[in-house]
Write a structure and sequence with these properties.
3 domains, mainly alpha, binds zinc ion, rod-shaped, four-stranded mixed beta sheet, Helix Hairpins
């Protein structure tokens, strides 16, 4: 592969190593984050209950004041009633007193309801606060227990970052843009290795999506430095270490379609000719049966 593709593979490997380390930190801290959210939710709920309690207490205080004011007014009216000059005036005070009493009763009824709510709220708050304390303790224990683990994982991430940055700096800008875009889209899996599922056939597939690729994809990647994208999943294709030209390019079954870079003559040419096969009969030749079949055809 050319320098761009080689740099891309190095970036891909460094980037994946960094992503994996980040994934390990995320997995290790997942339970702590869940617990943190639980504590936060409980705190919010508690604060809501406390606010409602304060509002109810204010309402209760206002109603209490209202009742006291009416009591005082009733007291005053009774005094005035005692000094009424005539029955008409006496009756007028009586009506006023009764109206105050009705309003006082209404306020008292309301105050009772509010006080019930206040008491209920206080119980709820007490229970919730105790529950919250328990969850907070649990969170602190979890944090204490994993403090070392997190520090180790964070150090690992920081240790991998320079290699990733260095590898990125070695990739030409245009290829880097393509890489970053694909890495974002495929959670880091921007590249996909070629594979040759059947070693006897010159057929390649994209290992990410398992789609068949055109036969000359190997040679294009091997001989040139262009970015080649999988036509199906659009990842950048590359040749993995385990697929060197001698393993990738078929020399036995496709003599007519000789791939570029193959040395003419040698093994391929020898197998084409039955006579040559018989003449040479090299001991390391494994396809004895094939050679025999070919020889019969050659005679006929
Ligand atoms: Zn693909």
């Amino acid at each position: 592969m050319g320098p761009t593709n080689i740099a891309l593979v190095q970036l891909y490997q460094a980037d994946m190593a960094l992503r994996e380390a980040q994934g390990r930190l995320e997995a290790a801290t997942k339970n702590v984050r869940i617990q943190e959210r639980r504590v936060r939710d409980l705190e919010q709920k508690l604060s809501g209950l406390q606010q409602a309690l304060r509002e109810h207490q204010t309402q209760a205080a206002q109603l209490e004041l209202d009742i006291k004011t009416r009591d005082a007014r009733i007291e005053r009216l009774r005094g005035q009633q005692q000094t009424a000059k005539n029955n008409k005036e006496y009756q007028a005070f009586l009506v006023e007193i009764n109206t105050e009493k009705v309003d006082r009763a209404k306020a008292e009824e309301q105050a009772l309801k509010i006080m019930e709510q206040v008491e209920r709220g206080q119980v709820e708050i007490k229970e919730l606060a105790a529950h919250l304390e328990g969850e907070k303790t649990k969170l602190q224990t979890m944090k204490d227990q994993m403090g070392d683990t997190v520090a180790t994982l964070q150090a690992e991430i920081e240790g991998l970052r320079p290699a990733r940055n260095e590898a990125a700096a070695a990739v030409p800008a245009k290829a880097l843009t393509a890489f970053e875009r694909l890495a974002d889209r495929f959670e880091g899996e921007a590249l996909s290795a070629l594979s040759k599922p059947d070693r006897r056939r010159e057929e390649y597939v994209c290992t990410a999506c398992m789609m068949d690729l055109v036969t000359d994809v190997y040679n294009k990647l091997h001989m040139r430095d262009d970015l080649i994208f999988c036509p199906s999943c659009h990842r950048i294709l590359y040749i993995p270490d385990e697929l060197p030209p001698e393993a990738a390019v078929n020399k036995k079954k496709t003599p007519r379609e000789k791939p570029a870079g193959d040395v003419p003559g040698a093994t391929t040419r020898r197998q084409e000719s039955a006579v040559d096969v018989l003449k040479s009969m090299t001991p390391e030749e494994p396809e004895v049966q094939n050679a025999a079949e070919t020889s019969e055809e050659g005679h006929g």
